[in-house]
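User: structure tokens for this one?
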Amino acid sequence: MASVNKVIIVGNLGADPETRYLPSGDAVTSIRVATTDRYKDKATGEMREATEWHSISFFAKLAEIAGQYLRKGSQVYVEGSLRTRKYTDKNGVEKYATDIRADSMQMLGSRQGMGGPSEDGGGGGGGGYAPRQAPARPAAAPAQRPAAAPKPAASNFDDMDDDIPF
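Assistant:
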């Protein structure tokens, strides 16, 4: 039986990224991202919020990009997979932690500190990086537009503009 280990997170960074380097020279960047679920409490009818914190690790080129451009409060879209690791705490107790190993990342929201609005004139944007994605396929030939249907005979709506498509 096939299995899938895929995670998609959209949230905000709780602190600036932490970047370190492995003995091989590869970068590793760690971030903590908050996602907030809003729901209506059935008992009281009040709106409630539940915030979940996610630990995410980036590796190699993606780690360098995340460390350079992400900051506390940045909104980010991350795709990756879950990884569970075992460690021993200060008291000698064995514990487990589940983290997200990022495969791709998209910066969302405004480009704060990047010199103003994006080049497309909008306030949003950002950049993305997906190192393990397949190259884009060539675009297919544009579809031919079908010939316009003949206009119906005149009716009681002669004062309406005939150029408006319905």
